[in-house]
Specification:
29% of the residues lie in helices and 21% in strands. By secondary structure, the chain is of the alpha+beta class.
Length: 288
């Protein structure tokens, strides 16, 4: 049997307060001569491993709202890297036009859904009452907001994939640029841990007209909600301990629409952990 020559003092040198047994740990020496250990006993808390190798992965999210956020991040930042990555003005103009068209139709879809909810509520009131309450005015008909963007070719996901591929092919492209443009997701090489903790976030409207946020709670205690009620400031709002969160704040008066924005971050032991989600926008209106 090969005996370890590691002394007790060398364990303390690497920040370990308890000397584990040989059965509980395994050693690995990297090229940089960095020592680390990994607990083999699952009941013992695993310590952070220094100098983990990071690999980059291109990702295009499929969720409508999350893709809109990813698309926006790319369009907001591509101008800073355009010349460096040899992206032409025509490419940038075309992809930004595609983004504005997609953003417009997403806003239209949300507004039409709210309008449909309002009409359904009015219909139910007319049909079933209560008769003791006076009937409110009919909900306003949906009108397409102006200006209406120029229609480009369809399949904006394909257009987005093509221009991001052109960026990656550039000899000047780097992992940092990929993250800044929102097309790279940094993860640890080990499959059991993730370097970037970012909650997914989607939203829908309840029959009463209130936004319902949804995220994957997973192993976390819950998530902290940040909200912009239309004043341009995302401030700490409320905490959700469930995957779904209903915002029961007062809706705008009849005939008025507002856009509320949200972002969330995971909570663990009552402390925020990881990164913020993408910011999503929800159009709200009264259904009364």
């Amino acid at each position: 049997m090969v005996r370890s020559t590691t002394t007790k003092s060398s364990w303390y040198r690497y920040g370990l307060s308890v000397v584990p047994t040989r059965r509980a740990v395994k050693w690995r020496i990297r090229k940089q001569k960095v020592f680390y250990y990994q607990e083999l006993n699952p009941t013992v808390k695993q310590l952070t491993v220094p100098n983990k190798k990071i690999k980059m992965k291109k990702i295009i999210v499929r969720s409508d709202m999350l893709f809109l956020g990813q698309f926006k991040k790319f369009c907001d930042n591509i101008s800073f890297y355009q010349k460096l990555l040899d992206i032409t003005d025509e490419q940038v103009t075309a992809i930004k036009a595609a983004y504005h068209l997609y953003q417009y139709i997403m806003d239209v879809e949300m507004a039409m859904n709210l309008s449909g909810v309002a009409v359904t509520a009015c219909k139910n009131w007319i049909k079933d009452g209560p008769s003791s309450q006076p009937l409110t005015p009919f909900p306003p008909l949906f009108v397409y907001p102006v200006p209406i963007p120029v229609f480009t070719s369809g399949n904006v996901v394909s257009q987005f994939a093509k221009i991001t591929d052109d960026c990656i092919k550039s000899p000047n492209f780097s992992n940092a640029i990929g993250i800044a443009l929102g097309i790279y997701l940094a993860t640890e090489e080990r499959s059991d841990t993730v370097a970037v903790i970012k909650p997914p976030l989607t939203a829908k409207i309840s029959p009463a007209g209130h936004p319902i946020l949804h995220s994957k709670k997973g192993i976390y205690q819950g998530y902290q909600v940040y909200k912009d009620s239309g004043d341009g400031k995302l401030i700490e709002y409320k905490v959700s301990m469930q995957a779904d969160f209903i915002d029961n704040a007062d809706l705008p008066v009849t005939g008025i629409t507002k856009v509320w924005r949200y972002k969330i971050i995971y909570l663990q032991a009552n402390k925020e952990i990881g990164n913020f989600s993408d910011i999503i926008s929800v159009t709200v209106m009264s259904v009364e």
